[in-house]
Specification:
single chain, 216 residues, alpha+beta, 7 strands
Amino acid sequence: MGRSFANLHIKSGSFEKTVEALKKLSEERAEVLGYSSTQDEAADVSERSVGEWKSNQPDTEAQKPKVVMHISKSNDNWISVLHDYFVWGTVKKIGKALSQLIEEPVMTAGYINEEIFELSFYENGEIQAEKIFCEPWTRDEYGLKEERLHDDYMREALGMRVEDFDSFIKLTSPEQAADKLSQLTGIPIWSDSEWLPYEEKLRDQFGQYEFRIENA
């Protein structure tokens, strides 16, 4: 089994505005991040039962579960996000939900077993463009098909020159496509939350942010 990763990127010049949107996503749409209110409520009741002798007035703010994200201002145009629940497939749902909370384009990247590299772009809760980089036999075997092909949108969103984009979009090797995208945009495509404990460079690049889940 080869390498896999998933990450999310927001095209925005305002780091603070982006963090606020991620905070709102965590507070109001935590289910897309894998949070189950039923499970956490049960755990919360259990914790209160064990700790009743300590206090009859528990600190409800401290008891609220939290979402932990790692965020990096990749460059002047893109802000990158890592989270434990980002995997190929789920990261698209999260990107779609986030795009409803922020005006800027949201890009998700999913890379699976060195066989598939998928880029998806969202605005206002709707997919705007998508590209799956893979070999023809992989596309046939898994029945892969883009939800929406829109090369002009993708090129403009990524800010690539026409000649650079033309060479990029024709690639079929997932690894080469990921490398090319990282090289041309400066976006840390080769990143995943599971890699953070093992890669000092990523830990230095991504700061940790914690958001309380209000509807727990």
